[in-house]
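tool_call: predict_structure(chain=1)
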Amino acid sequence: MPTIDNKPPNLLSTAPMVSKKTAARKILITGPESTGKSTMAKALAAHLDTYYVPEYARSYLNHIQRLYTQADLLQIAKGQALLEDAYMHIANKYLVVDTDMTVMAIWSQEKYGNINPWIENPNDRKRLLYLYRQSLEARGLAYYLISGNGKGRINNALKVVEQVFSLQDFVC
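tool_result:
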């Protein structure tokens, strides 16, 4: 299902609220590498006038300045959870999240399981997207494939958010 810009769709999941101390609803953007998750998360957050939780792995990996190990994945997962919790307390009605534990679980299995390291190749996105979908379905989480390019892709995501949350104040 590649789009015009040759990026496969990413997934938008409306996961249940993590913290009971806030009324914010979590909007999760997940999927394989280089599918535009960060761009989508930033644009949705801007449109919703709220925060987005960046991918903790990026800053962690830049900080260690070496190849990561499986032990690093656990530290990244913990850092991501702490970051998300911190943002959940300051978000307004919505919190847009640029990744989740699905990424960590799939990547750990892929990188350190019984699978050859060549899987890091971005040409394997179709198979990895299937794993993401399978993980969300196994947990009973609603998700939507978002495709398109540029502003059209963002508008497609906004339409899904509007539909899921029955919002009336969207202008795409």
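agent: Confidence is low (pLDDT under 50) at residues 1-8, 15-20, 114-119. Proceeding to next step.
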